């Protein structure tokens, strides 16, 4: 901060001085240590009736309050009489004046007490400063909000990306399971054909071949503690194309006529719905039919359906 000082030497006889002069200033915000001053434009400063001036670089003192003025009593005529001291803030134009109006005493004057005598551009500059601060605060708030929004958008994008990756992973797993189930169903169909050939083929009106004993198994459901048709507990998922057991439901394997809806037994009711057709056509063992019911009729359950409901080991789950 740059301050301009002005000092008025009195008009009285012998008022001037040839000594070195020193000035210090104190404000509400800071204090300036004592420095030696002189007028850069004067050949012989501090003469009777002169107003000498100069500038001082220091930190911002704030509202000027007090100061000290002295000389070192050097030179042949060291006594000095001062009318006033004036200090101006060159940045905002504020001006302060301290009245002295007397000769020094031993090189020192009484404590300088400054009063503001000109407001300069202080109020205008303060308003501009406040506006700049408010504008900067608004900009900082807007930048912070924009950064927060960007972070939220990035977090959403990351979550969507993770979801897409997880869905792709699950899709691949489903495709592998489907492929595995299809292969198992194909193997079961081939195994049934082998069993059929070894058993001597089928006979008209009966699904079993040779002299083996034919058995019908019925799958039915249990929901809320009651027996229900299979169609009530196993439903097709249109999105994946897979059959799933409904929450809270269970699939039960019936082997006797008194279980489920009366389709199971030896030989059971396979022939009533699929007379002359071998279970091998559905990927099952040739001597074992598996039916489900909708409450009024039965239908054959193929190997693909069973693999989706019971897994790859469906034979052990049903036949054992």
- Structural class of the secondary structure composition? alpha+beta
Per DSSP E runs of 2 or more residues, the count of β-strands stands at: 18
| Mean pLDDT across all amino acids | 89
Give the termini separation: 99 Å
Helices and strands, in N-to-C order?
EEEEEEEEEHEEEEHEEEHEEHH
**Strand order of the biggest β-sheet:** 4-1-6-7-9
Strand residue percentage = 25-35%
Q: Provide the domain count.
A: 2
The major sheet is characterized as: 5 strands, antiparallel
| Secondary structure: helix percent | 25-40%
What does this structure look like?
With 320 residues, the chain is α+β, with helices and mostly antiparallel strands. It folds into two domains: 2-120, Lipoxygenase-1; 134-320, no CATH class. 31% of the residues lie in helices and 32% in strands. It has helices spanning 122-198, 230-233, 270-274, 303-310, 314-319; strands at 2-9, 21-27, 31-37, 51-57, 64-71, 81-89, 95-103, 112-113, 115-118, 202-203, 206-209, 215-223, 226-228, 234-237, 242-245, 249-254, 288-293, 298-300. It has a five-stranded antiparallel sheet, with no helix packed on it. Strands 12, 13, 16, 17 and 18 form a five-stranded mixed sheet that branches. The chain has a four-stranded antiparallel sheet with strand order 3-2-5-8, with no helix packed on it. Strand 2 and strand 3 (31-37) form a beta hairpin. The chain is rod-shaped. 26% of the residues are buried. Residues 200-206 have low confidence and may be disordered.
């Amino acid at each position: 901060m740059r301050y301009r000082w002005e000092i008025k030497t009195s008009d009285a006889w012998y008022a001037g001085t040839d000594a070195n002069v020193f000035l210090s200033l104190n404000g509400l915000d800071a204090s300036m240590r004592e420095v030696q001053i002189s007028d850069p434009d004067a050949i012989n400063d501090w003469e009777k009736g002169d107003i000498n001036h100069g500038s001082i670089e220091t930190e911002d003192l704030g509202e000027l309050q007090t100061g000290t003025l002295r000389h070192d009593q050097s030179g042949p005529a060291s006594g000095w009489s001062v009318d006033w001291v004036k200090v101006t803030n060159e940045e905002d134009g504020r001006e302060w004046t301290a009245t002295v109006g007397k000769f020094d005493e031993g090189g020192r004057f009484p404590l300088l007490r400054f009063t503001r005598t000109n407001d300069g551009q202080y109020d205008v500059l303060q308003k501009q400063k406040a506006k700049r601060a408010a504008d900067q605060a608004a900009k900082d708030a807007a930048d912070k909000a924009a950064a927060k929004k960007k972070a939220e958008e990035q977090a959403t994008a990351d979550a969507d990306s993770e979801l897409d990756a997880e869905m792709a992973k699950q899709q691949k797993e489903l495709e592998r399971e489907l492929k595995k189930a299809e292969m198992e169903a194909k193997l079961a169909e081939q195994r049934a054909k082998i069993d059929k050939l070894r058993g001597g083929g089928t006979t008209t009106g009966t699904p079993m071949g040779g002299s083996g004993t034919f058995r019908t198994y019925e799958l039915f459901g249990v929901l809320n503690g009651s027996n229900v048709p299979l169609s009530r507990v196993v439903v097709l998922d249109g999105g994946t194309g897979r059959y799933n057991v409904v929450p809270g439901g269970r699939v039960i394997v019936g082997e006797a006529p008194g279980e489920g809806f009366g389709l199971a037994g030896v030989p059971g009711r396979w022939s009533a719905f699929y007379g002359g057709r071998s279970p091998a056509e559905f990927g099952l063992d040739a001597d074992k039919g598996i039916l489900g019911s909708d409450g009024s009729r039965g239908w054959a359950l193929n190997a693909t359906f069973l693999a989706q409901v019971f897994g790859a080991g469906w034979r052990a789950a049903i036949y054992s």
